[in-house]
Amino acid sequence: CKGPGVCRSGRKEMALRCAASLAAAGRQPRCPRLPRPAQEGTLRWSSAAKASAMKINEKASREKILTLESMNPQVKAVEYAVRGPIVLKAGEIEKELRKGVKKPFTEVIKANIGDAHAMGQRPITFLRQVVALCTYPNLLDSPSFPEDAKKRARRILQGCGGNSLGSYSASQGINCIREDVASYIERRDGGVPADPDNIYLTTGASDGIATILKILVSGGGKSRTGVMIPIPQYPLYSAAISELDAIQVNYYLDEENCWALDVNELRRSLNEAKAYCNPKVLCIINPGNPTGQVQNRKCIEDVIHFAWEEKLFLLADEVYQDNVYSEGCQFHSFKKILYEMGPEYYNNVELASFHSTSKGYMGECGYRGGYMEVINLHPEIKGQLVKLLSVRLCPPVSGQAAMDIVVNPPVPGEESYSQFIKEKESVLNNLAKKAKLTEDMFNKVPGIHCNPLQGAMYAFPRIFIPSKAIEEAKAHTMAPDMFYCMKLLEETGICVVPGSGFGQREGTYHFRMTILPPVEKLKILLEKVKDFHIKFLEKYA
């Protein structure tokens, strides 16, 4: 458009085309053949003009390069139930409540994810003090901070480029923190040696698990890597396997025996998988997520022997190692048991173990701090692993600092020790109390059975769903337990994750629920679940 009086066509169609083009560019048309704006920035369009402009814009817009058909099919195959459809629905309900929409409840209780601080758990003072000092070193001169916190902060900052938490670290992590991780592992495992060079700091445990799987997956057709995972499992594993286009090989935990791991089941799973893939990775979650079982020493020995015998790379997800509640249960690291089984095992079985700041008594999910210890790697593969890690530069340095406090906490004789140990024991004792409360209350409800919560921070109860409800779920193209959990959310405001998102034996139904809410709120939640389940059975039985 060249301004008034210079539209060469003199036709309304051309004037409209100019107007549409200018409007798309955010400019006002000056053509006298079009109506002038009633006020600055507002143009009166006739319905015919609008329709014409829309048609022109439709022609002008070309087909998108990235569509569901053209996107990476492995990414499309990824599913992550913990933040899946049920959580999206919970978010919609929260928005409705804020707008004043009336519901039979006043808040959504998100019991779907193990986010301790979001559920009201208080941070560990010492950890936050050290991270604060590292973040703002001027506080090192403040008398408000204890000397043991300042000592750790100075050591961490000395390991940072420019003495700043804002600098990149080495891809493997800050050296002094890796040294502290190795010392922690040695203390935890009763003197079993740990080499800082085998320690890799990660962005939470998830980053380490995904990285190791990435370097393990290879081959095509029947030689494609198979990854053995427990069912039920934490959906990170199935998601990572899908993204890498590896083969998921399920082995089932024994629900009738408190979710125990049976080596005979491992052997069945492995032998069947050999017909269609090359199983070479065995994943163990101990304590279990979502099932909460704690593996005993004999079980771990059997698993290690099986991995040695079948030449499997072991992945030990041990992020809940501080969360053990049941009497008679004790956490045993795979690294420790492997060492104690003798040099034939210790010098040969390839093992990656994972830990995190997100769980335990810390609950520092947002810092994304974690580490993995990888032993018996081929020297050339070690170089490849470091290369792969260097692509993402380094894990968050603030998360590395938080991880350091987990592995290097106050010790007896230091001024922060008494407060630290009091806070730590308070969190863990509270979780133990809530684990027992949850188990007991669920087992009083007809149609719900809950195994003992030996560890971790979830219940995974089995629920009876009547055939009438199963049929209705099918009519809504939903898994029966998704239908159940959606009804629970819509009627009570409680958000839990259906067992189908974790895997379960066919014909059984479960949901996963965190035990993190404060005790009084947890009691209310459990009462609501009980009342809902009884009504659900009355309606559909």
TrEMBL record:
One of its GO terms (molecular function) is pyridoxal phosphate binding. GO terms for biological process: L-alanine catabolic process. It holds the Pfam family Aminotran_1_2. It catalyses: L-alanine + 2-oxoglutarate = pyruvate + L-glutamate. Keywords: Aminotransferase, Pyridoxal phosphate, Transferase. Its cofactor is pyridoxal 5'-phosphate. One of its GO terms (cellular component) is cytoplasm. Residues 129-528 form the Aminotransferase class I/classII large domain. Its EC number is 2.6.1.2. Pathway: Amino-acid degradation; L-alanine degradation via transaminase pathway; pyruvate from L-alanine: step 1/1. Catalyzes the reversible transamination between alanine and 2-oxoglutarate to form pyruvate and glutamate. Homodimer. Belongs to the class-I pyridoxal-phosphate-dependent aminotransferase family. Alanine aminotransferase subfamily. PANTHER family: ALANINE AMINOTRANSFERASE, ALANINE AMINOTRANSFERASE 2. This is alanine transaminase. The gene is Gpt2.
